[in-house]
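Human:
If only I could read backbone structure tokens as easily as an amino acid sequence. I am handing you a single protein, as its sequence and its fold in token form. I hope you can help me see how the letters and the tokens relate. Thank you; the sequence and its tokens follow:
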Amino acid sequence: MKMIVGLGNPGKKYERTRHNAGFMVVDELSFRFQTPWKSTKFNGMISTPIIDGEKVMLVKPLTFMNASGECVRPLMDYYNVEIEDLVVVYDDLDLPIGKIRLRQKGSAGGHNGMRSLIAHLKTQSFDRIRVGIDRPEHGEIIHYVLGDFSKVEQPEMIAAIKKSADAIEDAVKLPFIDVMNRYN
């Protein structure tokens, strides 16, 4: 079973913020396949669509971004999900708004959610989709990432969310390296 983890922060307050791009992508997949979200005993929400004949677990950790690994590692252990079946989707300040980048490994790059995952998984070698949110021209990064997308940014982000969801659908049936070549 593939596990697709979208990183974000729980609650209405954060729902449409830049930092919740990962949640938005797994929400798009849940919507496409009309599968409801359910609470887990591991402090997260899961949705389990069948994509291309394979059961997939979509995950939204409810631990807040900086403790995402506290939800993901126990879920992987409980459901016997191997690291090669994990894909993590998250926002990236170093990519322009709406651009996506797929990678098979890498550092946290200053992203606290990824830092938590790497610490709990004890590896940097897992598939990921980075969704560009760009850097602020001025002001504090924390206020920027916890802010909503502007009206100008929204169409580009909607396209990036849909493209990321398409990439995940492809990753269920194709090797991730092939998906990288298609979407990067």
Observations:
- The mean pLDDT is 95.
- Residues 28 and 165 are 7 Å apart (CA to CA).
